[in-house]
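It is worth pausing here to work through a concrete case rather than discussing structure prediction in the abstract. The textbook approach is simple: state the sequence, then state the predicted structure, then interpret. We follow exactly that order.
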Amino acid sequence: MIKSKEKTILLPGKEVKQKLHDALACIPDMDECVLLDYPDYINIGDHLIWLGSISYFLEERGIQISYLSSSEKFSSEALDNKLDRTSEKTAIFLNGGGNLGDIWTRSQAFREKIIQTYTDRPIVILPQTVFFSNAESLKKTALIFNAHPDLTIFIRDHYSYEIAIKHFHKCQVVLAPDMAFQLVGKPEFKRSPSATKGIFYMQRQDSEKNQAIDPHQLPLKKLTVGDWSSYENKWVMGGSQSRLKHFAANLIRGGIQRGLMAPQEYLARSQWLKNADFKQKLIATTASDQASSQSNLQANLQSLSFIHAGIYQFNQYEAVITNRLHGHILCILMGIPHVFLPNSYYKNKGFYETWTKDIKLCQFVESVEGIEPALREVSCANS
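Step two, the predicted structure:
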């Protein structure tokens, strides 16, 4: 058995959360702001990021969200109306994640559109990983970013930071952890003591999948291979531009996919939401008008509901192996021993090396051969 290294963090993620606060301290005080690029899709990890941001604004800084929107539902007219009502230059925040680059083009195109359009407003990009496979794409983005007179970019890892300070040289660039670390210590992420299903191998299946590691090569018993339950159960979201399709999708997802097809999760979620302290805080907050407040609340409660699916899923297992960054982060939030694997580029490795390498319930490995001994180490360290 590999000997465990000396590690000093008592509450998993507590020090990373403090580093997040230290980095975000450069954001000036304000009464309200705009937050864009809501994840109106089924990637649970992006909902962790979103609620981390909401929690930071509301609970740490007392900043109300006057307008929020996904990229598909964004209305320049609605935003302009909000901005026209304020005498101050209300800041626009763009949600964090791993989509600053040329892999996830929809979010990048939306981000560039906002930065080009609102040159009269301070704009802040919340913590992101930067990755461009094409030099021309990076050059185009750099021209757009550097043309904005007041753009701040928070960056999630050292690899991305080096790219950002080299190419986005007229912007303020700040190294910061993922916004989901704002959720460290929240009682909603309590670990269940009754995990019975062995080990969960969470494997993303999209363009960020590392093809070199195959879970079927592992000689582990009680190994379940899958992804976020939202992907496994193929949740539907509906057409964002059609109210009828959106209503039908909510009915199918909420009533059938997350109700009739998963009654135990439905009952657990209902009880969890009833007792969730953060839900009450979301309800208690208001935007600058009633319509915005209700719209914001619905989006944030949807994210909270989605996050429960991830918590419920992880709580069934004694340990996790994952190549998803937010699989890694959710394990930290819940205190679950886990092995962290690389994705298709440096995102996972960079984040681990920058922020989480000293957290004892995790080990990062880059080969199939390293998974089993690392799993034994993290399991023993947390027994």
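Step three, interpretation. The chain has two domains: 14-183, 187-381. The radius of gyration is 20 Å.
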